[in-house]
Amino acid sequence: MFNYESMALSADELIKNALKEDITSEDISTGAVIRNAKKGCVQLICKQDGVICGLNVFARTFELLDAETVFEFYVDEGDRVSKGQLIGVITGDIRVLLSGERTALNYLQRMSGIATYTAGVVKLLEGSKTKLLDTRKTTPNMRIFEKYAVKIGGGNNHRYNLSDGVMLKDNHIAAAGGVKQAVEAAKQYCSFVHKIEVEAENLEMCREAVEAGADIIMLDNMSVEDMKKAVVLIGGRALTECSGNVTKENISKIIETGVDFVSSGALTHSAPILDLSLKNLKALEAE
Questions:
Q1: Where are the alpha helices (DSSP H) in 27-178?
Q2: What SS3 state is found at 120?
Q3: Is 4 helix (H, G, I), strand (E, B) or coil?
Q4: Are the CB atoms for 87 and 52 separated by under 8 Å?
Q5: What H or E segment, with its residue span, contains residue 252?
Q6: pTM across the whole model
Q7: Which one is catalytic: 39, 47, 137, 180?
Q8: pLDDT digit string (tens) for 23-37?
Q9: Is 137 one of the catalytic residues?
């Protein structure tokens, strides 16, 4: 769903806002110790094992402060990295290196943490037909970065936002007066190119959804046994998605149900950061 080129269309404004949040008027600490431009370099070091993600966002953060900042990365996006590994060297105005450090690392650590967590869940799905999806449970103003990180980690993106696809959840169904009515209303309102997904909480809702012509049926917070029955009931007439409290710990049981997809909000709302650090800053002699 995402590559960096498409993400860049909106990334700059988001990064600028993050920088403005951290630098209201000036970086007082840096201004106090270094008054004029001075060239220097600093090392980007990994402090734990994981999957690196967000190198371009990291670099862009510094570039927005000074376009002449230079980066030498020793790994590629999506590579596995290990504790103590030198990831790269950043060269530029020391004032920029100091002022942009925290914001740049926040992006890189967050995105790498999501990619790392996602890769771990994807590994648990190996050998099954079930594919991993993310959700809209993302940090405000971070969605484009977090969903990109899921892709880098080997997962798949669910709809990006409310304009991206039809999902009829419990409250939509209640507002419409039932599953059948909600699906019929969606078919009348939406273009034929949009698939219709229905959230089902029990087997009767699954039956109503498949009979109404839903394209995808989400098995929401069902027991493993009920999910198995639902997959049989649906019988391939619609794609199936399992959702609700999906974690690394219970995903093996979910695979046994035969669902096509499993969506997990934990990929973006519960992934810990990957610990990274900018260290060993030093001044360089003027050329």
A1: 28-33, 55-63, 94-124, 143-152, 170-176
A2: helix
A3: helix
A4: yes
A5: helix 251-255
A6: 0.94
A7: 137
A8: 999 999 999 999 999
A9: yes
